[in-house]
Amino acid sequence: MPENSEELRTISVAAVIAAGGTGTRMNAVIPKQFLEIAGKPILLHTIESIASLEEVRQIIVALPEEHITAATAILNRQRFNAEVRCVPGGPNRQESVRCGVSHVHPDTDVIMVHDAVRPVCDRDMMRRVLDAAWATGAAIPGLPATETIQRVSGKGRVLATPPRQELFAIQTPQAFHARILKSALDRASKEGFLGTDESSVVRWSGHPVIVVQGSPDNIKITRPLDLDIAGLLISGRSQEKNGMEMSETRLRIGQGIDYHRLVEGRKLIIGGVEIPFDRGLEGHSDADVLAHAICDALLGAAALGDIGQHFPDTDLANRDRSSLEFLREVRTKVEAAGWMIQNVDATLLAQRPKLMTHSAVMKKNIAESLGISTAAVSIKATTTEGMNAEGRGEGISAQAIALLCNK
User: Fold this and answer.
1) How far apart are CA 248 and CA 245, in angstroms?
2) In 165-278, alpha helices (H)
3) CB contact set of 66 (below 8 Å; sequence gap of 6+)
4) How many whole angstroms separate alpha carbon 260 and alpha carbon 65?
5) Which class is domain 5-244?
6) What is the pLDDT of residues 294-352, one digit of tens each?
7) Is the CATH code 3.30.1330.50 the one for domain 251-406?
8) pTM
């Protein structure tokens, strides 16, 4: 078993998000996980926190079937490194979690279970839970009680004063070896046991559970005041991040320019479209001038060099290769560096042939290669009115600008 969180990164983690809240105590007309904090639904904040862990490969959101469409629309606002999907839950939290667990990939090592309405969950705490769970089989975060806790009868009479040092307020995410959690939930379902949380089910099934240090910021949204508190915490973290990481701006812009000579005996490929013409663009790959300019714009915005460094013309593997493959690989490199592609704007310069009749298919090819909407891709074309090499029909060039934002 791994001895530290560096080794933990080699394991596969799935997260099940319990999102069945109704918002009754919030006096809200919509489920509380859909209420907004700092301009985003609570559910989206929560998913972002969980997805920030590199080990998380899959996120399952279990919620009432009638809310799946709304939740899916929210999650589609953003792309995540992990696979994210919504599934119908059950009649109670425990059964909802069991439904979510049933959709976890069979090769998953550890399953985390988290409340949808705990949006202020920090990475250090989640790392502690995962480390302990992988080492012991089951771990949960908790905060020691700071006030005296009394056991009180239904009539208000104090029955006992448990030792404070033994009392903890338990939070989520809770993490377990996948086989331990699955077995415990299935057995509890068959035998009719209903726990207060997943750790109580696992402990009932006979497996010990370890408590690690939780976080006081990891509040559960249950009352209107909690929304204000969470908003302050999220705002404070954002300001702290901006203050400590001035060099890591939230937006990056990159520019790319590419030129290719028109020669006989070559196909003319632009934006992944083969265009009928008597000549094609000269190059080692398919010489797709538009794709190359966009690659350079994306690489430049992410400070990852240029297309020549990543796809040199000295590499035989790139001979006649489709430049749409370059785009897909550049997308992977940009995302691995922590950036998301927001939009691309490109201009083609050519006297002949006319290119705009093919722009719709070009946009589709580029958008699919970059994993973005066609609405985020702009392609324009212009002549140079007979001036320079493009105007004389000697070649075609392209210019592109790309916008990235932090994940």
Assistant:
1) 5
2) 178-191, 198-204, 224-244
3) none
4) 54
5) alpha beta
6) 999 999 999 999 998 899 888 888 888 999 999 999 999 999 888 999 999 999 999 88
7) yes
8) 0.59
